[in-house]
Amino acid sequence: MSDFYQNGVVTVLHRLGQPNIDQLERELTRYGRVNPIALVLPSLYAELGRPALKNIVETLKSVSYLNEIVISLDRASALEFRLAKQFFSVLPQRVRLIWNDGARIQAILKLLVDHNLDIGLQGKGRGCWTAFGYVLARNHSQVIALHDCDITSYSREYLARLCYPIANPNLGYEFCKGY
């Protein structure tokens, strides 16, 4: 059995053949009208100063098929949160920052703990969980894509290949991973 075999509704998209990024993005724009796409970016404040996230943001400026981008920001002071808002303000999509260290999110997390719900430890997992909850509660996107903010080889193709199997209503996938 090959190393990329998956059964059921889970897939890993390997680069089999020469991709046509323009065609993928055109189709994602069309599919995005039926299945709007949210991109979740879990990020530490420290990543804003690194080349990988700067490249990701620069690349995302030209991605038109995303309905919204939700950044789940960890380890940021109030000043750093404001600086992060400026950093991401260059994006043309609807962008929302969740400040995980802020008083409002901390109050919600405390309420959950007070009701005996395990919220887990601070970190990427809880940050993603919070961002997913935000996207689901708003109910404006049907597809949630997620990737790290330290991908040094990031490209439009990477994001398109990640979103395509879920956004395409003809494929029937529920989960897709990329690496």
Summarize the structure.
With 179 residues, this protein is of the alpha/beta class. It has helices at residues 21-34, 51-60, 78-88, 103-114, 124-138, 156-167, and strands at residues 10-12, 37-44, 66-74, 94-99, 143-146, 175-177.
Give, in spatial order, the strands making up the sheet with the most strands. Answer: 4-3-2-5
Rg on CA atoms, Å: 17 Å
Low-confidence stretches: none
Task: Report the portion of residues in β strands.
Answer: 15-25%
Shape call? globular
Note the total helix count: 6
Query: How many β-strand stretches?
Result: 6
Reconstruct the topology from this structure.
Blueprint: E1 10-12, H1 21-34, E2 37-44, H2 51-60, E3 66-74, H3 78-88, E4 94-99, H4 103-114, H5 124-138, E5 143-146, H6 156-167, E6 175-177
Parallel strand pairs: 1-6, 2-3, 2-5, 3-4
Helix pairs in contact: 1-6
Key attributes of the depicted protein:
alpha/beta, 41% helix, 4-stranded parallel beta sheet, 6 helices, Spore Coat Polysaccharide Biosynthesis Protein SpsA, Chain A, two-stranded parallel sheet, globular, 179 residues
Task: Report what the structure shows.
The protein is of the alpha/beta class. It has one domain: Spore Coat Polysaccharide Biosynthesis Protein SpsA, Chain A (Alpha-Beta Complex). It is 41% helix and 18% strand. The protein is built from 6 helices and 6 strands, in the order E-H-E-H-E-H-E-H-H-E-H-E. The protein has helices at residues 21-34, 51-60, 78-88, 103-114, 124-138, 156-167, and strands at residues 10-12, 37-44, 66-74, 94-99, 143-146, 175-177. A 4-stranded parallel β-sheet has the order 4-3-2-5, with helices on both faces. Helix 1 (21-34) crosses helix 6. The two termini are 20 Å apart.
